[in-house]
Every structure is written in structure tokens, then in C-alpha cells.
Amino acid sequence: MRNLVEIILPDGRKRHVEKGISLLELSKKYQKDFKAPIVLALTNNKLKELRSHVNEDCKLEFLDLTSRDGYRTYLRSVSFLMIKSIYDILGRGLSTKVIIHHSLSRGFYCELKGHEVTEEFLNEVKDRMDELVQKDVPFLKRTVSLNKAIKIFDENFMEDKVRLFNYRRVSNVNLYKIEDFEDYFYGYMVPSTGYLSNYDLLKYEDGFILQFQSRNKPTDIAPFHNQQKLFKTLKESSDWGEIMDVETVGALNNKISEGKINELILIAEALQEKKIAAIADTIMKDIDNKKIIFIAGPSSSGKTTFAHRLSIQLRANGLKPHPISVDNYFVNREDTPRDKNGNYDFECLEALDIKQFNTDMMNLLNGQPVEMPEFNFKVGKREYNGRVLQLEKNDLLVVEGIHCLNDKLSVGIPRDNMFKIYISALTQLNIDNHNRIPTTDARLLRRIIRDNTYRGTNAEKTIAMWPSVRKGEELYIFPYQEKADVMFNSALVYELAVLKQYAEPLLFSISKDKPEYIEAKRLIKFLDYFLGVSSEKIPKNSLIREFVGGSCFR
Description:
Strand order of the largest sheet: 2-1-7-4-5
Number of helices: 15
Largest sheet: 5 strands, mixed
Shape: globular
Strand content: 15-25%
Helix content: 25-40%
Structural class: alpha/beta
């Protein structure tokens, strides 16, 4: 009689399978129930690659490319396939370096050092990628000692990884291999190259875009939208990181270990203040017309602190800014639209009284006194408590809200009277040249810390609500970011080393049986790359103070 183990599926069904069977073999039996290829599995709430085996009774759930972790695995695997293909064509040497910089329009913006990027070259790389996919080459994983890994990276001219692993506390490192090419990646891989499809390479600026399939439409390559303003902001940050020699986590750890972090903090903060002052100066150039400053950005971008600091710069120019929150124009609770699940949809534009907002703004622009509303979130009603505002010669309005870049919000206000600002934490730092840090990770860590400190919400609840927050951003913020007159990057190159000490205890508090544990574990592993930095030397007006406490604006 064969040795069997019991698996429990998400719907409660129980099955007995042969002990030692691979998840890959099992996944083929359940693939028909999924709309996209299965690429990962959850066993007892722990992520596993499909080449793992079932050796004990467990709860089992398969994840396809449309799941959050499955899609991350796809992005990572295609990136590895691309890097391998480039090195197959150019060879490995000191003069050739592939760098995955940042996300842009459902793709990654990449650069190639030591070789010109042409359409012909990209076609050659794409052909090589397709060839490897057709061959269905396995992604092999092996575990080596830390010293062995550093030696391999050094021999393959991967200085960024040597820097990174000089500060690792682990004894062993997992390396991935396609044919003869071996590399390190933060996260899991698909079983083989045959799982990959629907990708493209597009020439863009000085580099190229590795474009991916849509998460929700896995049979289609996501269309590329030229986000020129966003790219310029990201590129400027990346170039600054290169000049300061803090492009990667290993380089940042070098600054910390060499005692240069305080100088880096001062430089990073000075750069942000300089940019805020420049925005104020731009507004001043057309102050006779620009009377309403709109500020929008995704969650935990630091909008509150930015608005305060911009207001200070405007006051230094002799102006008197008046802050206005669009949230005060929520319709009464009973009039709020509901989503498809019957819950109140506070994120949609229709949750605001657009007509009243535009009426009030125009009356203010015309010099008339306006009684300003305040939304009472406890009772769910807009109230008027006698606060009257009337603009004088040097007055202007600073309006903040998630819909501030949407023309439908300000439909009754002349465009010449508006100055629109988009703010987001667009981190220029990457783990190494091949492992990027998603800007959403930095924002999630900011929010976990802030929610715990100021809102009494634990990390488990913040992580649980994050997908809903992200969905709202995708619908109501990101589509309008290119409409901004100026973009402001609120990320600070040193911040993750500071956030580490605040976030880790909160993440460790999530128990292993909770759905949010998977994401918490991923973030804990991510933060382990960083040396910690005390918040003691951070200025009181820093954007980071909005999250870790001690801000002069609270």
C-alpha cells in the first residue's frame, strides 16, 4: 500500500495523494479550474514553488497568474528570462550591465550599460527569449553558502550583489539558474520558461521597456502608455541616486556602515526642500491667475506634510495660503453611492458634492465670502459651523484630495486659475540591479506605521485593506497623474532603513494562521536587507515624520 497524505482544498474537499508528490504534478490535475496558468501554491498558509513536494497533511491552495503573488512571480521570471537572453547575446563581462530601474505603464524601464540599445538589438533579445520559452527550460534553484554566493557574484562582475550580500545575516543563499546563467532574485520563480508568454520589448528614451501581460487579462500584453512626466520624475531620482552612489540597498548600507548616513539625510532633505521651493516659485510667476493649488497622490505619499511645507514656501513669498480638504464635500452618508457588494463607495467621485464644491470655489475666486463646510465623519453629514472664508489680494487656496487631478472635480473652474500637483513616493532605490523595489512597498510600510501610531489600526488590518486602497488608486488617481503641472517625489533614499525599526515589530505580531501573514513575511524578508537607522537625526519637518512621529506639523 502506498504512503498517502491528506490535502484539504480551499472549498473544504479532502483528497489523499501519494506522499512526496510534486506540487507541479498536482497542479496539472486542477489547472482546468483556473483561467490562467498555476504558478505557485499555498501549503498551510506558506508560499511554495511548484517544484516543491507534499510530504505531510496540509491545506492546499493553488495560485495562478491573476493572483497577487502569482503575478509577482511572473514579473520576476520574465525579468530573469530577459536578463539571461541579453547576456546570451552580449556575453558576461565588466562592461555589460543590465539594470531594471522602475515600473512604467505596466512594464519595467530598463537600461543597458556598455552597449547601445537599438530596435534591432531588442528584436534579437526578444527572439532569444521566445526561443527559450519554446525550449521550456526549467528554472533550477540551488542553495549555496553566503561566501560561495559572494564569490559567484564577484566572478560574474555583479558588484551590486556583492555589496548587498556583504551585509546579509543569513548563512545560505538561494540562487536560480536558466541553462548556464545563475542569478539571485528576491522571491519565487515559475517552474520553467514554458510558463511565460505575452511580453514585449520596446525602445524608450535611453533604454527600453520590458512590457508585461495584464494581470486581469493574462492572454493580452498590457498596452503601453507614454507617461512622460512620471518618467522624467523617476529618471531624475535615479540619476541623483547614481551621482550620490546610492542606487541600491548595498550602496545605502555602505553609507550607513561608513558613518555617512547623517550627511546623506541632510542632502536628501535639502533636495526635497529645494524642489518644494521651486514649485512655490513657479506658482509665483503666474500668481495673478493661479489661485487654486490642487494636490493629489496615492495613500501614504506624504500629502499632508507636503501641503504644509509648500504653504510655508508660499508664505515666504508673501502669499497667504488657505488649506481645503475635498473630504469636507462628501455627500451625506445616506446619499453615498454603493459598490457592487452593496458597501458605501467613499472613493468614487460621485461620493462628493461636485456642484457645491465648484460653486464655492468660483465664489471664492470672485472675491465673495463663503461659509466653508466640515464633514462630520461620526454622523456622516456635512455641517456648517460658521467658518467663513473670503480671498484677499495675496490669498490662494491649497486643495488636497484623491480626485484633485480629475477634470470632472473642477469642471466649473477655469484651467488658468488652477495649478495641479501630483505627489507620490517614487523610490529610486533598488535591492540590486536586477531586483527592483516597488514604490507600493514603501507606501505600504509607511501606512502600516502611521495607522498603528495615529489610528489604532494594527498591521494585519492595514495589510487586509491594502488591496482595496490600491484598487481605488488604480481607478481614481493613476489615470490622471499626467494631467499635473508638476510632479513631486516624496520618497527619501534613506527612509526604508528608518522605517525598518518601526515596521518589523508590527509585522512580526501577525500570527502565521492569518491570510495577511504571507505579505507580512515578504515585507520582513525585504526589510532584512537593510541596516537600521535611528530617526533621531531626521528633521522635524521631514515627510517621514508624518509616519514615524515627531513632526512639527502635528
